[in-house]
C-alpha cells in the first residue's frame, strides 16, 4: 500500500477497525487529514476495514464499492479503551506495509507481540480460525525460500485465508520477458488482497509497496531486509527470557553477512540496559555501521573471542551459520571460520539455567545435534514463533488492530 | 468434457441450472434429443447441475450418484424468462469446454459478459463468495505462465473453490516418461472437477477436452488459441467504450505473431460497423488469413503507418509487445521493429477523450510509463477484467447459467 | 510421529478417537503403558484426538493446550462396538505413520479399505466433506511426482483440509545449504498437521517419522517403499474382483525394478490360496528375495513366458512399464525388453469375462490404447482408487478410526 504512514496523520487512524469485532466509540470518529484526502475531494470520515480500498487516488470511488457494506452510514469505529493495545493513543502506529525492521518502534513491537500471543492460542484451537476467510495472499517469490514461504502460507491458512503461490517468479513470470516489478505488482494486486514478496534485489520490497494499493510484506529482499525474521527473533527472546530490557545477548558467527544479526542488533537498541557481545571469526566481524549505531543509542557492546566466557554471562546466545556462498573461492578461509565457534555441550554446561540458544536456521554444525535435547535449545520454538508473528502481521494488515 | 455441443441439440438445454438459485418453469422441462441420449437408454429429463455427471456414456449412472441430491424427483429446471440471458431461446449456447475464441457467437459473448459483471460485484463483496465451495480446479500448465495461472487460481478461490497446481507439468510429470496427454488427462480428471490447461502444442486443449469427462479450459496452447484472453479483451472494450457495434479499433505492434490481436480481430467481426486499423512494422504485419476473413464478413479494415493519425480516430488503441523470441538471431530486425510504434504522451495527446489504450501485458517500452497515469490507460483494468471473465467461465462450466 | 507403535502397547489405543463422532464406552478407558508415559510423569488417561499433541516429551504440556477442549475432564473415548472396524479388539492396529507396505497386516488392510469405501461416497457428495477442515498437510517432495502429489492434495482438499506445497524441496529448500532432513522436518512440523514426503533416498521416510511429532506418510522414498501405491493396488483388486483370497494374479513387465510389483507380491502373501505368475523379459526378472518370501509364506508362484496362456487363467493381469532409466546405455536391451509382453486386444480376447487389467501408470505402449475401451481395463479406476485410499489414510491419521 503505497499511501503509507505519512498520509495518515490522523491520530486515531490506527484504532479504526472492523465493526463486527469492535464497538463504536464516539470519541474515535475521525476525519481525514487535510494533507491527503482533500486532494481526492473526500470530506467523509475514513473507515479502514479493507485496506485494499484505500488507494489515495481512488478515494472517491471506494465509497461506492459493494465491498463496503455500510457505505450509507459511513462511520469511524474504534477499539474500546479496555481492548486497546498498550501504546499511547495519538502515536502513529498504523501498519500498512512491512518493509524493514527500522519501521517498528518499541510500542508497535509490543503491540504486534500482543497479537502474536493471541495467535498462539488461535493456532492451537481446533478446527482453526476463520478470521481471514475470503482473503487471498499472493506469495511472489523471485528466489526460492521454502522455509519462509511455508511459514507465511501456513500463517494465512491457519487464519482461514487462501494463498496464490509463485515459487520461482524470476524464471517463470513475465519478468523473464522484461516486465518491470511495478507492472507485475499492478497485475498481482488485482488478484489478491496482500502480497508477500521475496526478491533478489535490495529495495525491491519498498518499490513494490510504493506501487501496490494493497499491503506488501517484505519476506527478504537480497542483502537488504528480512523484517519478519527480526520480529520473530525479538519475540522469541521476550517469550523465552521473559523480558527485553536489561538482557545480555551474544551474537555469534557470521556477523558481517548475516542480515538477521544486524537487524536484531538494531531492534535491541530500542530497549533499556541491553548489552551485546559480538563473537565472530575475524573475517566476518560485525561492521562499524551497527557498532556506531549502538554506541549512538547508548547500547553497551563488546567484541570477544571467548565464546564460553560470553555464554556463561548471557541470557541469549544467538548463533548463526557461516555463509559459504559469501566466501567465493576462498574455501580455506571459510573452513577456518566455520569451525571456530561451535555451540556444543561444553558451551551449554557453562550457560545459565534460564539462558537460551537461538539460531535463525538452517543450521549446519555450528550447533551440535546433541544440544537439541537441552531445554535451553530454543531454535525450533523460535522457528515456530515465526508462524505466530506472521499470523499477527497478516491479521493486522488485513483487519487492523 | 468431450461430449460437447453437438450432442445437446435439445433447444432448452442451456437454460437448465441449479435449483437453489432458479425457479422451476414448466415450459422448460426438456427431454434429451434422440441423437444423444437414446444410446444410453436415458428417457428422463436431463438436469445439468453437475457437468461432471454428464458423461454421455454414463448417463444411466449419474442418476444413482449421491452427488445428485434430488435424484428421486428428477426434474428439469430453467431460468425464468425475466432472468434469462439476452439471447434467443432455441439457440445452442451451452458451455461445456472453452477451447477457442471461434466457439463463441455474439449471443454467448453477451451472456458471458453479463455473468462477468455479476462477478465484479461478487469479487468486491466481503467475505467472499462460496458458490464453488467443494469444487476443485486443476491447473495443468505444461509451460509456465504465472500471470495466467494466478488469474485463474484467484478466480477459483474468489468463488470459494479450491485448486490443485502444476506449474511445470512438462518437466515434472509423467509426460517426461512418455505418457500421452490423454492418459494424463484421464488421471487428473479423477482428482478434480475442472481442468485449466496451458500447453506448448497447438490443438492440445481440444485433445484434452475430447478425452476429459469434466470441463476443460484452454489457457493457451502454443501458437494456437488463448480464448480467455480474447474474451477479456472484448469484455474490456465493452466496459470501457460502452459498446461494441460501431467502434474503431487500432491493432498495433506485432500483428504477425500475436495470437491476442488475431483472436480479437476474429471476435470483433461478430459486431456491426466495426472498423479495424492495422499499425505494425513491415516484418510483423497482420497475415492475410485474418484480412480475408474480415473482408468476407464485411468488416472494414485498413493498414496504416501513421500511429498518431489512427489513434486520433479510434475508440481503442490495442498495443502489443514485439516478441523478441520470434526473431531468432535477427536482433537487428527486432530492435528496428520494437522502437517503431510507441504509445507515449504525444499519442495520448491526439487521442479522443473517451478512447482507451489496451495491452495484453507484459509491457516493455511500447507504452511509456508516463502514460500509466492517464485515465485512458486501461491495461491494468483490462488485466483485472481477466479475473472476472475467468470467474464467469468457472461458474458457467461448473454450475451452469 | 516419532513415538510410533512400540510406545503404545495399550491394547485399546487404536479405538480412541474424537468425541464428536464417537460415544464414550467405559471399557475402553485406557491408561498409558509404563514404558512411555511414566517418563513424562503423566498418569492420566491418554486421549488421541490430535496426533500433534502426542509428543512423548511434552505429555505434561498437551493437557494444557487450548486445542484440547475438554481438558478438565480427561477421558478416553472409544468406538462403540457396532461401529468398530472388523478386526479383533486387542490387536495393535493404530495408525501413526505410513512408512512401508510391511507395516500393514490383513486386519488393518481390511479396516483401511472399509474407510476408503466410505470415502468414495464422500467424494461423490456435493458440496464436499469438511471433516478435515482446519487441518494442514505439507507435501514435502524432494523429487517431483506430479501424479502422486496431486492425488494426495486432492484427497486432502476433498475432505476440507488445506495444503502447503513444495514440489522441488531438493533444489529449493535449505537442504541445498546443507540442512539435515531432521532439521527440515522439525521446522515443517511446526507449520502443518501432517507431512506427506517424497524423497530420493531409501529410508528417508522412516527418519522423518522418527523425528516428527506429527504423522508422516511416505509418498515414495527412492528405490525403497511407496506404500500408498501398494494399498491402492490391493484395494483395486478387491473392488474389481470382489475378493482377495483365492485369486490368481499375473505380474507382467519390469519385475526387477518395479517397486509396485514387489510390494504387491508382498501384500498378496497375506491372503489365502493366492497364486502369482511372473511374466517378464529375462533382464528384468523378479528377484529371489520376493520369490523366497512367497515360498516361505506358502504362496504358490511360477514364472512363465507365455502371457496369453497366463492371462487366460488369471483374475488380474498387472502390467508394468519397462523402466528405460534403469538400462543406462544398454538401449538395445531396453528396446528388446520393452516390446516383449504387450497387453493388446489379442490378450484381452483370451482373458476371462470378470478378469481385469491393472497398471500403476504412467503407461507407454505396454498396453495398447484400443484396450482402454474394454470394461476390464481397470487402470484408470485404479488411479482413482488412489484418491480414496489417500483420503482414508489422511482421515485415519488425523482423526483416528
TrEMBL record, chains A, B, C:
Keywords: Allosteric enzyme, Pyrimidine biosynthesis, Transferase. Its EC number is 2.1.3.2. Residues 97-238 form the Aspartate/ornithine carbamoyltransferase carbamoyl-P binding domain. One of its GO terms (biological process) is amino acid metabolic process. The keyword Lipid metabolism does not apply. Residues 245-396 form the Aspartate/ornithine carbamoyltransferase Asp/Orn-binding domain. GO terms for molecular function: amino acid binding; aspartate carbamoyltransferase activity. The keyword Transferase applies. It is an enzyme of class 2 (transferase). Transmembrane segments: none annotated. Belongs to the aspartate/ornithine carbamoyltransferase superfamily. ATCase family. Homotrimer. Catalyzes the condensation of carbamoyl phosphate and aspartate to form carbamoyl aspartate and inorganic phosphate, the committed step in the de novo pyrimidine nucleotide biosynthesis pathway. This is aspartate carbamoyltransferase. It comes from Morella rubra (Chinese bayberry).
